[in-house]
Amino acid sequence: MPLRALLFRRSPEPQVIEVAFDQAIYPVRLRRHRQARRYTLRIQAATREVVLTLPPRGSVREARAFAQKHGGWIAARLGRLPEAIPLAHGRIVPIRGLDHRIVHRRGARGTVWTEIDPGGTRLVCVAGEAPHLGRRIADHLKREAKRDLETACRRYARELGVSVKRISIRDQSSRWGSCSSTGVLSFSWRLILAPAFVLDYLAAHEVAHLVEMNHSRRFWRILLRMCPDTHRAKVWLDAHGAELHRYGAP
Q: DSSP 3-state assignment of 158?
């Protein structure tokens, strides 16, 4: 590389900066966007990540000053988020809306299963070594979510006379489900944590999009005919949906 180019080459930008506020340090991820007109901060509730967007000509120095100026806002917003709950021994996790206590049974055979103890407490039991406990429970919940969603989607598809090409399970932070024009339905695995009528509503919602790829009056008529619990499920998601993202944090 020519000497002139070396002298004037811009040093790589940091991906993360730190903001100090009230004796706490908050990492902030930097994101440059060509259509941004100003510096903006947002909190991703699902991941508890702080993201600062820079305009094309913005500088890291100005970004640091902007983030530091809003340190109180960052602390307050993070403080209002529900407490993160890891999938660990002794913790409570809802499965289909019912609380289960996680119990590590290191020497037991198998992987993950549920049972009820003599006192009536619902348990989700995990065999194997402790470092794999969280992953095993997450994998189990994803399998259960896919099984319930596949059952519900196939049922609604038969009712509407449409075909579901594939059902995928992800950890989406911005939406609970989606439907492609090719018949692929995608859902958040966290729906398995919600009451069964909520998962059922999301399945009906996305299958209905195979008939109407919009939210027209006809779409809602189709959905309400299939799923009378639509309003009840929407109210539940508005009130409690954000809490489902608290489970599984390290």
A: helix
Task: List, in sequence order, every residue forming a beta bridge with 122; answer none if it has no partner.
Answer: 116
What distance lies between CA 171 and its chain's CA centroid? 5
Closest to 45 in 3D by CA, of 139, 169, 175, 135 = 175
Contact indicator for 219, 212 with CB cutoff of 8 Å: yes
Retrieve residue 24's tokens. Answer: 């706490």
- Residues 222, 182: Cα–Cα separation, whole Å: 20
- As a whole number of angstroms, the longest Cα–Cα distance in the chain is 77
Amino acid identity of residue 48, one-letter, is: R
First to last CA, the chain: 44
**For residue 47, what are the CA distances in angstroms to 65, 74, 228, 243, 246?**
24, 14, 32, 12, 8
Please state, in angstroms and rounded to a whole number, the distance separating the CA atoms of residues 1 and 3: 7
Q: What is the pTM of this model?
A: 0.78
Q: What is the pLDDT of residues 8-58, one digit of tens each?
A: 555 678 999 999 999 899 999 999 999 999 999 998 876 788 999 999 999
Distance (Å, rounded) from C-alpha 173 to C-alpha 44?
8
